[in-house]
Structures are given as C-alpha cells and as structure tokens.
Amino acid sequence: MNTYLNKRAQGIVPYVAGEQPKDKKYVKLNTNENPYPPSPKALEAYKGVNFSDLRLYPPLAMDKLKSAVAEAEGVSPENVFCGNGSDEILAFCFSAFFDADGKGAAFADITYSFYPVFCEFFGIPQVIVPLEEDFSQDLEKLRKTPAQGAVIANPNAPTGMGIAREEIEKFVAQSGRIVIVDEAYMPFYGQSAVPLTQKYDNLLVVKTFSKGYSLAGLRCGYAVGDRELISALERCRDSFNSYPVDTVCQAVCAAAIADGEYYREKNALVISERERLSKELARRGFFVLPSCSNFVFAKKSGLSGREVYEKLRERGVLVRHFQKPRIADFCRITVGSAEQNDALLAALDDFLS
C-alpha cells in the first residue's frame, strides 16, 4: 500500500457503478437510464447558451434553475438546493446532518449502496434496519432506532418497491429527527413527499434529473426542504465547491423541468412497459417484486442471479447483479423501450430453452 495515503484512502471501499463495457454493442439495461430523449425544449436551451459566456463562472445563485424547480414542485426558491447530481447532494446530507461521534444514520440493509459508503467516508455510525422478508420496509422499526436520523430511498433501490406518501408523513411526524427521502425514481411512482416539506421542518427530499428527465449525462440534482436545512447544505457545498452546476447544465435543466407535459407522457410509456415486462418475466417463471420505479427486480428458481446476468451478457444484454446477502439470486433490469425489452425477452427465451 502506498505510504502516502491516509488511513481513509487506504481503507475506503467505494461505490461501484454499473459497468460500461466497450467490447461490443449491448442492449444496456443495467444503469436505469431513461430510454427516451430529453425534452426538445431542453435541447433548445442547450443550443441557446452563449458560448462566449463559458469564460465566466456559472451563476452562483442558480436563480433561474431554482425558480424553475420551485415552480414545478410548488415551493419557494429559497427551499431549493441544486447540486452536481443527487449523489453529491446526498453526500452533503451525510456531512451536514450526521455526526461522527453521534448515534448514526439509519437506513435499510438492502437499499442504495452509496449510503454505507458515505458513512464510511465521513466516519458516521451506521444503524442498519433489515427489510422484511417480502422486502418491504417497516418504518416503525426504523423509527425506534436511536439514530440521529434516517435515510429512505422511495422507491427503494434495488428492489423498486415504494412507500405511500401517507406512511412517509406518519414516519416524519413521529420521528422528531432529520428524515432524508431519496426520490430518484419518484417520476415513475407519483407519491412525492415534497408537499410535506412545507409542513415538517425535519424533512428533506432529494431528487435527480438523471432518471425521469433523461439527463443522466448532465449530472444535476436538487433537494427541497426547510430553509434551515437548505442553508446547511449550502454551507457544506461552499466548503468544497461553490460552482457545482455549470452554466449549460443550469439552462438545460431549467428548461427540462418546465416541460412537465412532455415528461409525464414519456414516463407513462416507461410505466406501461414496466407492467408489460413484469408480466412477461412472470410468464417465464420469474418471481418479480412489485416495482414503482423504472426497473424490475426479478429472480428465476433454479438459476442464480449471476447465471442470469452472465447468460444475458453473452447474448448482448446488460442487466445488474449484486452479489450480496439476501439478493444474490436477483437481477435488476432497467425498463427500456419496447424494442429493448423485446430484445431482453428474446435473449431470455434463447438460453431458457
């Protein structure tokens, strides 16, 4: 080990993103990207950026973007924080709301795998609450932990299962601690907790432009919450980088989130394909968890998740497999376009036969 590294750099186990192989062309259903293009209005905004303005730093206050987000979410701009993807915002959340010598951050054993990485990086104790046998989350068990606060992915990843807004509200109301709801996949569920942020000052909702807005390549996300929570995120941000969202990104995302009708139409297609794909997988003998996201979590009796992943990869289809306790038999399959999903099903039929 390089002796110049500090203990953290030597010991940290980083988050592992979905593979991006270049050896051949794949049907890519492993990173939950939206199969449909961004709004045409977003493209117009991209073309409308004055190239000469790029010599200047991006707008520090991000007024145009924050106003567009606030308008779409029905809140005030002062209750909006924007960052370089929801992952960056979540990192700020862990640094802003949890102490290294505190009682820890509580989250599920099977959830977004960046949460334990953030805890390790910032030295925050982890309070792990196992999901139920059916992979649902008992929020009462989460509430009873001694943790400083809780982080809930809704819909959850990688299971895809959702929690109704009424249940989230009950949890937030009774918690008395910070509650961070990660709504990366909320465009495919429609039970956002954002309206609750105007009622509860301990709730922060984090969202992304990557999934529902088809802008994963731009890296932008936002959080909505009480002004005091937003201010804490701003202080953490400005301790690292005061300009995390570039000029082009701000313009494109502001135009995208203003075109709600376009995205409702495209995401409805994803939801429709999700239901079709779930039924087709079940017809082929797969057990499929009820999904509220843009992916399905499925397993086939008699086959390991690794086998399914490898057989599909050999046939040019990429899905995601996690070699982890309780879920090693499952594969996470992004809902693609009708053509992509048909290619997946054909590849399945080929090796299952």
Write the layout of secondary structure elements.
Layout: H1 7-11, E1 27-28, H2 40-47, H3 63-73, E2 80-83, H4 86-97, E3 105-108, H5 114-122, E4 126-129, H6 139-143, E5 149-153, H7 165-175, E6 178-182, E7 203-208, E8 221-225, H8 227-237, H9 247-258, H10 260-283, E9 286-288, E10 295-300, H11 305-314, E11 317-318, E12 320-321, E13 330-334, H12 338-352
Parallel strand pairs: 1-11, 3-4, 3-5, 5-6, 6-7
Antiparallel strand pairs: 2-8, 7-8, 9-10, 10-13, 12-13
List keywords for this structure.
353 residues, globular, 4-stranded antiparallel sheet, 7-stranded mixed sheet, alpha/beta, 38% helix, 13 strands
Shape: globular
- End-to-end CA span: 48 Å
* Mean pLDDT figure: 97
Approximately what portion of the residues adopt beta-strand conformation?
A: 15-25%
Number of helices: 12
The helix/strand series, from N terminus to C terminus, equals HEHHEHEHEHEHEEEHHHEEHEEEH
Unreliable parts:
none
- Based on helices, strands and strand pairing, what is the structural class? alpha/beta
Please state how the strands of the largest beta sheet are arranged side by side. Answer: 2-8-7-6-5-3-4
Helical proportion, percent range: 25-40%
Please tally the β strands and state the result: 13
User: How big is the Rg?
Assistant: 20 Å
Main sheet record = 7 strands, mixed
